[in-house]
Design goal:
Elements (H helix, E strand, L loop, with lengths): L6 H11 L3 H8 L3 H9 L6 H13 L2 E4 L12 E4 L12
Antiparallel strand pairs: 1-2
Helix pairs in contact: 2-3, 2-4
């Protein structure tokens, strides 16, 4: 089972790609209002919607990074461009 993406991660991934809400919503086959509500935290995405969003973003080379609890440099969950060479020291969500 995949992790449901948080509002912050969805917003950050969209910003990384420099996509408008309308553009991303269209690519995810959801309404711009739904995406706006998800990004603002007004509602949580269903597992199906989260999977759609994740697929579109990962297909655009976005990688989701899990939060660290071991005291390393990267502390919180985040997004980044998927590297050409995987970094196996980061937990991917």
């Amino acid at each position: 089972m995949e992790t449901i993406l948080s509002a912050d991660l969805v917003r950050a991934a969209r910003a990384l790609l420099d996509w408008s809400q309308e553009h991303m919503a269209s690519r995810c086959d959801i309404t711009a209002k739904s995406l706006s509500d998800i990004e603002s935290g007004k509602r949580k995405p269903t597992a199906k919607t989260s999977a759609k969003i994740r697929k579109v973003l990962e297909d655009a080379n976005v990688q989701f990074i899990a939060a660290n609890s071991d005291g390393s440099e990267i502390v919180g969950a985040g997004v980044r461009w998927r590297p050409a060479q995987p970094n196996f020291s980061l937990k991917i969500i």
